[in-house]
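Q: Is it fine to ask for two folds in a single conversation?
A: Yes, each is treated on its own. Send the first.
Q: Here.
A: Result:
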Amino acid sequence: MPDQAHNSQVNRCFTPQLFAWGAGGHYNAPNFKSALLGWEQRALLDINTFSMSTPLKWKQRGRVPPFSRRQPETPLRTLALNLSEAARSALTEPFRLTVEHQPIYLKRLPQAFDGFRIVQLSDIHHSPFTSVKQIERAVETANSLQPDMIALTGDYVSKERRYAAPCAELLGKLQASQGVFAVLGNHDHWTDASLITDLFRAEGITMLVNQGMRFEKYGAAFWLAGVDDTMVGLEDLSLALAGASEDEMKLLLAHNPVILRKAARASVDLVLSGHTHGGQVNLRPERSESARPRRRLLKGLARQGETQIYVTRGLGTVVLPVRFGCPPEVSLLELRCC
């Protein structure tokens, strides 16, 4: 029993305080071993009668604030973040294929063609910048829209002839109930226009090189024409429209939209063009501060007089494999009577 009482009292002792007292009041007492002798007997005394040379003070543990790596916002840092986000968007946007559905109302469109659906593809630029998978996706998207006609408006490859055959093979998989029609662009001439023309025709694509034809359906018709590229100086609109009657509707395929004024003077109802890539990199809004459209025609539907034009943003890229503010496009144009 005495041993149990002894142990109980020792257990109640505050060990750091006893150790400091037993060591002569200092933790670094020189006679450490001898100072500890008999500490159990001393512990039985009322320890409140002794004081430590250095009292221990216990502080309540505070909550440590989490470490934050967030840097203060500065104009330079904000600019760097914006540029980084813009660069990321520009590199990924060429892969964000979109479908643009555009109804177009035409006064001279025969009633039989009301609701006629045209899918337009342009500026494919098959090259290291525009892969086979990107073209395949565009072809699959175009076919899924079940068009009556498919219009191809130039620039199928960029610089290297070895891309011509694979591009023609891929576009040969396009399906439209009334056929696939195409014209050439400036990059096609800078590569090999004759080779591209032959390859496309071998795939069943009708090439319109300053040519026209009467497109008939359900007893009604309109004039479908296509011109060679304006930039290389081979466009001949009068030859493409030769044979068209004065009062029939005329649909023109032309790679470069600069032909719009000529087409308006020739009473063309609708022009389908590409070439601009929609600007490819757009840093300015489409409208000026006065809320008027920019004078330069880069994309979308516009008109001059009674002649309308649709300019697609196309699929591929040139110079750099980037787009900003104008993702690649498959155009679904629905012709409507008005």
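Q: Second one now.
A: Result:
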Amino acid sequence: MPILEEQNLTEFLAEVKLNMENITDSNEEDIQEINDYIFKSSGKFIRSKLIFIYGTFLEVDRKDLVELSSATELIHLSTLIHDDIIDDAPIRRGKKTIFKKWGVTKALLYGDYLYTKTFSSLNSLQNQKIASILIQCAEKLIEGEFKQLKNIGNLNVSISDYQIVINNKTAVLFSGILESIAIYAKLEKHQVMILKDLGQEFGYAFQLNDDLSDFVNAESGKKTFKDLSENKYTFPLIVVLNNSVASNKEKIIKLIHAGDYQSVKKEIEKGDGFKKTRSERDKAIQKCIKMTKKLLADENLQYAENFLISTLKS
């Protein structure tokens, strides 16, 4: 079984980025201008890192990992571009969003362009079962966006309703890519399910960690109270509202409507919203670690565990 070093991962991510540039290359000047703008940024490539670590440890061919990562990152990128339009977001990763720099029409067209290029690359995959999985993931992502739109401004949303949004909008792609890894590795059916479930738990923990960052402005680069200001109510707030007496719930709602987000944060703290979110996130991380132990050799467990904890508890 291979032993990974950070240099291996860095080289792999460079290959993925170059492949993404090749896939999206265009003779159309406006499209290529946006391509150049996007690929100058250094994204997190969390999905590619996940693919590389589990794919390498399960001895999947590197070329397959690069192709899977490229398609996955392009699906993710296209959803981000459309998300920014929906959210009227001016900045992403410290730079102007595509629609703020080029306008809504070009941003929409470019997002569509990425989708078509992604599906074109999926069609070239030798394993069409994996192509089918990723196409289904893309469909679920859009369905998740519709579900999230229904919840915007809804202060009566339940935890279970919010978890459905997470499963569709965030966790589904992580689950799909690890299921794809399992298929590439020709694992037994029960092992495929373990990897698929691992991806689901990874995505759940990833989203909960992101929910926390909305209130603490961690190193995620996310603006403090971004979700709250867009009337997107996330786990820390939802869990407090769901467990508050009527008078306290009414108080929190008034603070939200007044835009007094610092006071909302204090109420969430008092109601143990952050503590409960961290606990829920950490339970999901432990599930990921437990499932990983069923799949990887002992000498690779520490590297995978370190990745899980550093990524999901940032």
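Q: Anything structural to flag on that second result?
A: Two points. The mean pLDDT is 92. The domain at 154-314 is CATH 1.10.600.10 (Farnesyl Diphosphate Synthase).
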